[in-house]
Amino acid sequence: MAENEGPVLVNDLPMTFQVKYLGQSDARGLWGIKHTRKPVDLMVAAAKALPPGQVLPLVKLTITVDGVHLETIKQDIKNEFEHMAVFFNIESISYGVQDLVYTRVFSMIIVKDSADVKGLNPFECHAFVCESRNAARRLTYSLAAAFQDYSRRVKEMQTAEIDERPPSLKKRFAIDLRTPEEIEADLETEA
C-alpha cells in the first residue's frame, strides 16, 4: 500500500504506515525545510550513535482527516522506549516534508499548545524513517490530503458563520510536495 505511486486523495484516508520513530527535536519555525533540516540531522546522528542492540522504536503511524496517530508496535527486542500512543490533531501540525538528504525520512512540525509553552519554543520537529523513499513520499501525500480536507472544513465553517478572528489568529499550515531534488535545487538558487 505505501509503495503506490500517485496522489493520495481524502477518500484514501486513513492510511497507515509502519515506520521507525527517530524522535523529536525543537524546530525554530512554523514551516519550511529550513526548520526541519537541522533537527533531522541531529536525530539521525543520535540514531547512528545508539549502542549495539538498541534500535529505534517501530511505530504504526496513521494519517486520518483529523490528524496523525502514533502507536508503538510490540517488539521482541528489549528497548528503552516504553509503549507510546499519541495523537496530533491536524490543527497542531503546521508542516510536513520528505527530507532532502535522508529521502526515507518524513518529518513534521508540531505547534505545541500555547498554554503548555509559557515562553518556551512552541515548535517541535518529529521525524520517522520509512521503509523506502516512495513510502516517505506516500506519507507526505497522505498528510497533504488531510491538510486539504482540513482546509475545506475551515472554509466551510468560515462561510457558514462570519469569522470574527483577526487574520493573525487563523491557522496556517504547509506541506512540501516537491521531491528532495526539487527542494535542493530551490535551496541552491536561494543561496
From TrEMBL:
Record flagged with keyword Cytoplasm: no
Keywords noted in UniProt: Lipoprotein, Receptor
Annotated organism of origin: Vanessa tameamea (Kamehameha butterfly)
UniProt keyword Lipoprotein, yes or no: yes
Protein name stated in the entry: Low density lipoprotein receptor adapter protein 1-A
A Pfam family this chain is assigned to: PID_2
Domain PID span(s) in chain numbering: 12-156
